[in-house]
Amino acid sequence: MAEETRLVYKYLRHDKKFPHVWCPGCGNGILLGALIRAIDRTGLEKDDIALVSGIGCSGRISVYVDFNTVHTTHGRALTFATGIKLANPRLQVIVIMGDGDATAIGGNHFIHAARRNLNLTAIVVNNSIYGMTGGQYSPTTPYESISATSLYGNIEQAFSIAELAAMAGASMVSRGTVYHAALLDELIEKAIMKRGFSVVEVISHCHTHFGRKNKMGGPVEMMRWQRDSAVRIEKASSLSKEEMKGKFTIGVLVDRDLPVYTQEYKKIREAAKTMAATGRSILP
């Protein structure tokens, strides 16, 4: 059996939930492939994984994979994931969100999950638009871009998901694209194995809404844009500001060791048990 076929039958609910809902050429299919390849390489059992998603095109990934899955409400994927992780720290919790899901309605949860350094992996699919609900602009829609809610050009500045995660306190922050599929496999694998809050921003494309409205072409042209605009972080340090204009970095952007929330929470639980039993606290 070919390797890709083996992964499909091992990890996907191929007999229940397909065909998928994504537009032909959507980058979510590439991300789904990268996710199951990364998980397979970690050696984790399917029952050891809880995959949580919010609302949006990428949120459908949780429906298609054969793990413990929760398809939650818009912007609240990280809150559900936090509860799951604290209730059962043994589970490897992975969260899939879109750029609007994670950083607009879910923005507050995103920054505080990073600040707490929860032992979770957050994969944020950034296609610069609200794809499922009609193509409204999102927090990552570039300035002057056209969308269903910015017919004369977006007047708001976009912010960087990766930089937001790094500044909020995430242990590991990476950025990849669906064009650079082999690198994306590696980044997701590293993020899953990292202790603490790890974020992978995935630059994808929505040719149905964003590409069409902004005359960027179809999926092939938009994939070529990713190829030409992405610069490996190792190479970017040797380029000038002018050479990096209009481009973005990919790879592992931040990797640091910080206190993990679940470990700190365990200390508090043990202290409370000791206090109840003996009347004395074990905390300093």
TrEMBL record:
<dbReference type="InterPro" id="IPR011766">
    <property type="entry name" value="TPP_enzyme_TPP-bd"/>
</dbReference>
<feature type="domain" description="Thiamine pyrophosphate enzyme TPP-binding">
    <location>
        <begin position="62"/>
        <end position="202"/>
    </location>
</feature>
<dbReference type="GO" id="GO:0030976">
    <property type="term" value="F:thiamine pyrophosphate binding"/>
</dbReference>
<protein>
    <submittedName>
        <fullName>2-oxoglutarate ferredoxin oxidoreductase subunit beta</fullName>
    </submittedName>
</protein>
<dbReference type="Pfam" id="PF02775">
    <property type="entry name" value="TPP_enzyme_C"/>
</dbReference>
<dbReference type="InterPro" id="IPR029061">
    <property type="entry name" value="THDP-binding"/>
</dbReference>
<dbReference type="GO" id="GO:0045333">
    <property type="term" value="P:cellular respiration"/>
</dbReference>
<dbReference type="GO" id="GO:0016625">
    <property type="term" value="F:oxidoreductase activity, acting on the aldehyde or oxo group of donors, iron-sulfur protein as acceptor"/>
</dbReference>
<dbReference type="GO" id="GO:0044281">
    <property type="term" value="P:small molecule metabolic process"/>
</dbReference>
<keyword id="KW-0560">Oxidoreductase</keyword>
<dbReference type="InterPro" id="IPR051457">
    <property type="entry name" value="2-oxoacid:Fd_oxidoreductase"/>
</dbReference>
